[in-house]
Amino acid sequence: MLQRIFHHPTYAEDQPSAHTILTIHCLHRGFTAGAIIGSLVSFARSASSTILRRPTSIVSLPWTTRLLSSAAIGSLSGTAFLAIGMTARMWGREEIEWQDRSWRILANRGQNEEDGWSAGGIILGTLGMGIMARRGAGLTAGLPMWKSMVGGAAGGSILGTVGHVLTSSGSVQDVEKKIVAGEGPLKPNGAT
Question: Which of 58, 139, 148, 178 is in the most buried spot, having the most CB atoms within 10 Å?
Fold first, then answer.
């Protein structure tokens, strides 16, 4: 995604917009990581309330609505956490360090594919939940508009990530084919 927006020069020291590239990347990853953690927390809360039979006020909502709400809060929390983490990690660093990290992000084909899938999921999830929230239908019933849309973006980000993992060119079958063909770092049955 970022390589379509930002120029990727031959050398890292020539990388323009290094601060912007690294910041966008970190916030995007934080959003997705937070969404995954928030969703897992929602599943754990649902399972524990079912097993322990202790209803809480949030349990009165359908599990899909709780999942959407938890994904929204998790994604915002993850974004904030990585914003703080990136600031702490990069505070006082020289420009070349920003340029090198940004250059490597743009050079990483798999990361760019992942970003594209995730960004597409964010857009579709936001639009879908925005439309549902306007109608007051489905998953969004009982949630504020902002939480529905952020939760939709979070869910879309997760689905985009899963979609990329399932369709990536670095699948297990591709790696196995390269090993059998004698390509790559691993050689079959003692071949040199």
Answer: 148
